[in-house]
Specification:
This protein is mostly helical. The chain contains seven helices and no strands.
């Protein structure tokens, strides 16, 4: 009787280990499948619309970046017209940045997230003012104005 109990117990433990192994294997396989890069042609029309500024470079983007962009693009259909326009404009600007410029932008974003919430608005205002000053300088030195 005692041997029977031990046999049942060992059988139970081995079955659990086997099933755990199968579950782990299936998880790893499904993760690998999801992590594969997605060609532009395989994207849904909604994703293609949202990510249109990146069409030419999409297939060359790292898979991690593709999946990050796809995750962001899921919200695109629920945006207002103005929000969609802003999204497209920002994505167009982003698509024209060099990898170094993108990395610098990511670093600035991470640093900005660390700024206390009450100070963020001041920083935003300072950046807006700086951008307005640069734009004004550009229009003031426009050679077409001198002619």
């Amino acid at each position: 009787m005692n041997h029977n109990f031990i046999f049942v117990k060992i059988n139970f433990v081995l079955t659990r280990i086997f099933l755990t192994g199968i579950v782990l294997f299936l998880f790893l396989v499904s993760s690998a499948v999801r992590a594969a890069p997605e060609p532009w042609k395989s994207l849904s029309p909604a994703h293609q619309e949202a990510l249109a500024p990146l069409k030419q470079q999409w297939d060359g983007l790292p898979e991690v970046q593709q999946h990050r962009l796809l995750k962001t693009a899921k919200r695109y259909p629920s945006l207002t017209r103005e929000q969609k326009q802003r999204f497209q404009e920002r994505l167009t600007i982003w698509s024209k940045l060099t990898p170094e410029q993108r990395e610098a932008a990511r670093e600035k974003y991470q640093a900005f997230k660390k700024v206390p919430a009450d100070t963020r608005e001041e920083v935003k205002q300072m950046v807006r003012q700086e951008q307005e000053n640069k734009a004004k300088q550009t229009t003031d030195t426009d050679p077409e104005d001198e002619q």
